[in-house]
Automatic annotation (TrEMBL):
<dbReference type="GO" id="GO:0005886">
    <property type="term" value="C:plasma membrane"/>
</dbReference>
<protein>
    <recommendedName>
        <fullName>Inositol 1,4,5-trisphosphate receptor-interacting protein</fullName>
    </recommendedName>
</protein>
<comment type="similarity">
    <text>Belongs to the ITPRIP family.</text>
</comment>
<keyword id="KW-1003">Cell membrane</keyword>
<keyword id="KW-0812">Transmembrane</keyword>
<keyword id="KW-0732">Signal</keyword>
<keyword id="KW-0325">Glycoprotein</keyword>
<keyword id="KW-0539">Nucleus</keyword>
<dbReference type="InterPro" id="IPR046906">
    <property type="entry name" value="Mab-21_HhH/H2TH-like"/>
</dbReference>
<feature type="signal peptide">
    <location>
        <begin position="1"/>
        <end position="15"/>
    </location>
</feature>
<dbReference type="GO" id="GO:0004860">
    <property type="term" value="F:protein kinase inhibitor activity"/>
</dbReference>
<dbReference type="Pfam" id="PF20266">
    <property type="entry name" value="Mab-21_C"/>
</dbReference>
<feature type="domain" description="Mab-21-like HhH/H2TH-like">
    <location>
        <begin position="405"/>
        <end position="477"/>
    </location>
</feature>
<keyword id="KW-0175">Coiled coil</keyword>
<keyword id="KW-1133">Transmembrane helix</keyword>
<dbReference type="GO" id="GO:0005640">
    <property type="term" value="C:nuclear outer membrane"/>
</dbReference>
<comment type="function">
    <text>Enhances Ca(2+)-mediated inhibition of inositol 1,4,5-triphosphate receptor (ITPR) Ca(2+) release.</text>
</comment>
């Protein structure tokens, strides 16, 4: 009898757990592809009913046999220990069964749960491409030639002009600084899309980083989030920079942490070899009452120094120089008398140890990115290694490979869609990260120029998958397959992968807007491409790249 009751309970529990109402959705919206699932659930319900009838028949038979046994000879009763053991085993079996059933339900219906509520429009991988008219090879090639290829010459001329002026400006900056007290400024380096030859949308903006170091006898000692100490999730990808004396022990002397008596002196540190007072540490651009470099103080110093340097050399040029953006302190704009202007970013950075990873004082922020934890936390940029990786891989690819072409087309389409429907959480850096991952995953021959259409579809599908999972990992951080030729620091390869889409988990409104913009871009893709190929007279194609988008 107990065995039969237990089996009936298992069947009932199974039916309840498998019932779809056990996991109600927030808005009750049914996906378009649930008819097959509903049919399977009906079949399963029918089979469960048949199983229940069979078990009821078995229970009836067992009850009859039980009565026969009771009328027969006296049956030896089970001992209390055996009853306890049986009850314990029965309860344990039911718990295990329930856990297995709940896990199976969660595994099978996980896509329903992810698609519910605010994310009910998020399609399964590849579903968003159903019904989308994708341009063929000829249309894509014509679009790329007419709309994008002509911008290459403009970028080269602008880079040459900006680099020449920046070198002159920094040389003047060094002459106006006090070499015994001010920071030492090194030569600038070009990074980003302008120097990787894939920027397509105007206005063109050159990104230049300027490494700097403290005056002697001081030095910078950095600490990054993956160095072993625990950092909160919102500080992943950041680090701090401490200003120390070059001869100071990294761990610090105990005299800095312990109050010595009035009649006691530290034999290692004399009064002439102590850390600067608080006001002098602030002169070294540190946060108040600390030894940590303050990004806001650095930018104030840099802006003042650039202004002084420009005043010294302005008579040599027939244009004006000004700071153009308040939220990006390093943004400069050259204004010619003709009314034309050229914008570029000149941003101070600090080198991480002896690598080409840099702490950047200010970084262009998107609506997706969170604010800095504090002004003593510096974001790490891997832009120099990204540029080198693209150059290294390009040498291994076929002639006229389509990797940059795919990125340019995708960047153009996304930019045009955002100009129509408003900004989204996606940035050009996310698009470039997608390309970097595919460059490492796909064989080199797959990037031949005639495979432009296939690789563009791969990038779109990869991006859709990342949006669906809310996971797009930084290409370098946690990537153990980085080519050794780059000399990339091993500490970052061994770090936990950094999810660039983590803010999507926290900002659902931005996530929903980003997904909607992506799907709208897919639907409008052919129309946007045809607009700049078929409907533009050939006589005007040479001047298309002069327009500003």
């Amino acid at each position: 009898m107990p065995v039969g009751i237990f089996r009936v309970c298992l069947v009932v529990i199974t039916a309840i757990v498998n019932h779809p109402l056990l996991f109600p959705r927030e808005n009750g919206t049914v996906l378009e592809n649930t008819e097959e699932i509903i049919q399977k659930m009906k079949e399963r319900e029918q089979s469960l009913r048949l199983e229940q009838l069979r078990l009821e028949q078995e229970i009836a038979d067992q009850e009859a046999r039980q009565k026969t046994v009771e009328k027969a000879a006296q049956v030896v009763e089970e001992s209390p220990e055996e009853k306890v053991r049986w009850d314990t085993w029965t309860a344990l079996s039911m718990v295990i069964f329930l856990l297995i059933e709940l896990w199976r339900q969660d595994f099978q219906e996980g896509s329903w749960q992810d698609a519910g509520g605010e994310e009910d429009d998020m399609a399964v991988l590849g579903k968003a491409f159903k019904g989308v008219s994708f341009p063929d090879k000829a249309v894509l090639a014509s679009f790329y030639e007419k709309r994008i290829l002509g911008t290459t010459g403009d970028m080269a001329r602008m880079r040459e002009m900006v680099e020449g002026f920046a070198d002159d400006l920094l040389e003047a900056l060094r002459s106006v600084c006090n070499r015994d007290a001010d920071m030492e400024v090194e030569d600038c380096m070009g990074v980003g899309s302008m120097y990787e030859n894939w920027r397509v949308r105007k206005p063109f903006v050159c990104d230049l980083i300027v490494p700097f170091a403290p005056p002697e006898p001081y030095c910078f000692r950095s600490q990054i989030w993956c160095s072993g100490d625990s950092f909160p999730p919102d500080e992943q990808g950041y680090g701090t920079i401490k200003v120390c004396r070059a001869d100071e022990d990294v761990a610090g002397c105990i005299c800095d942490k312990t109050k010595l008596g009035e009649d006691m002196l530290c034999l290692l540190h004399s009064q002439t070899n102590t850390t600067r007072p608080s006001n002098e540490m602030e002169d070294l651009l540190c946060f108040k009452n600390t030894q940590y470099l303050d990004a806001d103080q650095v930018m104030k110093w840099f802006q003042i120094a650039v202004t002084k340097a420009w005043n010294r050399i302005s008579h040599k040029y027939e244009f004006d120089l000004s700071f153009s953006l308040l939220d990006l302190p390093g943004a400069l704009k050259i204004k010619f008398r003709s009314g034309k202007s050229v914008a570029f970013n000149l941003t101070p950075v600090v080198q991480y140890e002896n690598s080409d990873v840099y702490f950047i004082s200010h970084f262009p922020r998107s609506g997706l990115a969170a604010d800095l934890p504090s002004s003593t936390h510096w974001f790490l940029t891997f832009a120099v290694y990204e540029r080198r990786f693209i150059q290294l891989i390009s040498k291994m690819l076929p002639a006229n490979a389509c990797h940059l072409s795919c990125l340019q087309i995708l960047s153009f389409l996304h930019g045009k869609q955002c100009s129509l429907t408003g900004p989204s959480g996606l940035t050009n850096y996310h698009l470039k990260t997608v390309m970097l991952h595919l460059l490492q995953a796909c064989p080199s021959q797959d990037w031949a120029p005639e495979k432009l259409e296939a690789r563009l579809q791969d990038m779109l599908k990869f991006l859709e998958k990342c949006l669906h999972e809310k996971k797009l990992y930084h290409f370098f951080i946690g990537n153990g397959k980085v080519p050794e030729e780059l000399g990339f620091p091993i500490v970052f390869q061994r770090a936990e992968p950094l999810n660039l889409f983590r803010p999507f988990v926290l900002h659902r409104d931005v996530y929903r807007k980003t997904v909607d913009t992506f799907h709208e871009m897919l639907r409008n893709m052919s129309a946007l491409i045809n607009e700049y190929t078929v409907h533009i007279p050939h006589a005007h194609t040479n001047g298309i790249h002069k327009e500003s988008f």
